[in-house]
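We now fix the convention by which a protein and its fold are recorded. These numbers are not coordinates but entries in a learned vocabulary of local backbone shapes. A record is reproduced here so that you can trace the correspondence yourselves:
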Amino acid sequence: MTFSEHAFDACCRASKVIGRRLNKAEWLQAMQEAYDSYPHEGLKVRATRIKAVDAEWLEELEQNPAYAGIDIKRELGKAQAWASVRKVGVSQMRFLNWLNKAQVSDRPIQFNGAGATSFPAPSAQTSSEPNGWREWVRENSTDPSNADRPWNALEAVAQKYILTQLKK
């Protein structure tokens, strides 16, 4: 019999004795008596041990390709500083969560074998761009830096307006 069944039976018995529902004080007394009379021997208490961050585990993380490009030791320092302010420890689980939320800016840009970045170089002008639009934007726009953006990055309304102005 589980403790909840034992406690339920104790409350039912107490309720039958007095002939009505238990009030709060009576319920608490019945629960305390059920707790005191329940055989606690043999109950297994699950012991969870929080795994601490150690040097060997950090080495494994540095070898893990999922965390390539992340400075693990620097992130550990940031996590420890965060944890010390909040008076908590840095467990392995907490640190893994921390690493998984590492900002993209904290990861360096990867280079391919040719020495170029993994991002393709922006093209100056594609065939779908109207000729002369960049010059018109630099001369007439309140924000000339829009001319440095790709044509597809402009809003459709802006593209339509520029096209009508170029046809004049």
Notes: The two ends are 89 Å apart (CA to CA). The CA atoms of residues 40 and 101 lie 43 Å apart. The chain has seven helices and no strands. Residues 3-18 form the longest helix (16 residues).
